[in-house]
Amino acid sequence: MAASVSIEQLVALNDEIIGLVRGGVPLELGLAELGTDSAGALQQITQALVARMQAGASLSEALAAEQQRLPAAYRTIVDAGLRTGRLPSALESLSRYARELVDLRRRITLALVYPFLVVVLAYFLFAVFIVDLVERLRETYEMFRIPMHWSLQAVLATAHFVSRWWWAPPLVLVGIVIWWIMTGGANLLSFRGAARPLAEIPYVGRISRLFQLASFAELLALMIEHDVPLPEGLRLAADASGDPRLCRAGWNLAETVEQGTQPARDQARRFDFPPFLFWVLTCGQQQAGLTRLLRHAGAIYRRQADHLSHSFKVIFPIVAAVVIGGGVTVLYTLTLFGPLAQFWSDLGGE
To answer: Among 104, 275, 303, which residue's Cα sits nearest to residue 218?
Structure first.
């Protein structure tokens, strides 16, 4: 079975191709050196690419043969870059997006370390101390024949569950950690492996969407600049995004343009494009004007993504520590002192 490629490995391969193309070095020679210095999936894929190119295949053909390890979106970007004669520029847009996702994921992981340790410690203390405490309180209530309050009954039921199934919560935590590690890997360029769990976190999905829109606009500008027809450019740039939503939007608009229909400006929602980008694509500008507008749109979306990403990196660690770490600490404190306070209240009332 072919080993999957991580985001970091894809970025390394990307950067190597960019450097070799700009330096005028034959790809098979440079990639052979990369394969020698790397290991794992990156070594396997570079060696496979080198072998195919030495046998006479082009870069695009060699990548197409690696469809199990590289997504169609990545091959589309390479094809589009080769078509326009601007392969480094096309791949640089991808590398910026990939690095931002890698950095976001790393910061989220680091921010979750402290809350995770708090959760583990609180569970350990609950399992060792509070289970025994609640059991002793239950015996005391029975001894004095005091009616047990519903809150204490709830804590007692939880303690009983933990005493029988103590291994279940740690197993769930281990499963979450393994899932988080595994989803950092392949299916890469659409980043379905990495971005899908990230997208569940507030603002991360918005950041990813903005970077995809920026890359879409910049890649389409490259193709229009090199005389690629707008419908074909829309399909290629949409496929290169790896985002199903953007793919549908690009293909639907391409079909409308080919039919000679001019979409109304109030149809942005129907085509699922942001209003400004939809206006750029349908304003009827000629090649030079459309290229400038697309690059301007790409710059706007990239600035928005950078700003939102920077804010998220500052705010998320604080929120995670307060909400998760602080919440678990408060919950542990309540389960520790709550039953005791209830017992003293019931004992005094008795």
So the answer is: 303
